[in-house]
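#structure-requests
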Amino acid sequence: MWNEFLDIEMKDKVEAEITISYSLYRRPIGDISGEDFLSESRYIKFKDIPNLEGENLTKVRNALMIIKGKMKYDKEKAKVKSASSSLRLGYGVCVNFSHAFIAMMRKNGIPARIVVGIPPGIYDAAHAWVQVKLDKHWIDVDPTVGIVTRFCLMHRGA
């Protein structure tokens, strides 16, 4: 989906109504090697991020449990700037949950990238979640609610 921004300046304080119409188009993202999604970044530092044991799907599930055990959703305190800060402070919003999860995946050798958009079936709110690369597939994981896509579970025989 291509994003466009609307900038409005009003000289007088009057009541106004703006209607914006848009269409959503799904475009698959090409399968890339995933190597670009293994490193630290400005928001994803490996400091204080735990090492996880087991095979990759087990690491995904364990990371979800750690995050859900350490973090609470709190829109009022959403000024967290990094994954390790989110985990240490124990709160954040969907972007903070996603960065913490990405840090755990990348530190443990699993390519992970953030997705920001409007989730399928929800038409009025933006959200952030994560895609991890398991075998040759990018799999959606939502660390805010603690779920792995059903496709992942069926594909892996869980």
